[in-house]
Inverse folding.
């Protein structure tokens, strides 16, 4: 499974739509097996969604995301986990450990909204 996480200054980028960088983390059998960075400068949300799909991303972890951008990402078959905040390394470890639904990682003021949109506890099996 490959997860993309938006990055800004070693933290989750606050808004997917304007994010310029992502880290793609490859996980197999509950362990990180690879990592690479991609630049998204000058790309619109549709272009970002297409690029993520072509990079084999199955889940996107991000801060805020517009409904339009979220629909574009989902249309590419990518599960979106929005309204996440925190240091990149801690969020990656929480994602691998399936603990991103903890309030520690919710953007301020967005924790309940994330769950209402069905993202908080809907985890896919991370293993293969």
């Amino acid at each position: 499974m490959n997860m993309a996480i938006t990055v800004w200054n070693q933290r989750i980028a606050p808004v997917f739509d304007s994010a310029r960088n992502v880290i793609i983390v490859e996980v197999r059998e509950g362990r990180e097996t690879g990592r690479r960075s991609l630049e998204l400068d000058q790309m619109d949300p549709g272009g970002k969604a297409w690029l993520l799909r072509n990079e084999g991303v199955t889940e996107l972890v991000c801060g805020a995301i517009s409904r339009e951008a979220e629909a574009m990402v989902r249309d590419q078959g990518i599960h979106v986990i929005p309204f996440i905040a925190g240091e990149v390394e801690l969020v990656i470890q929480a994602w691998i450990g399936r603990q991103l639904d903890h309030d520690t990682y919710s953007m301020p003021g967005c924790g309940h909204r994330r769950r209402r949109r069905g993202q908080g506890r809907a985890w896919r099996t991370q293993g293969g």
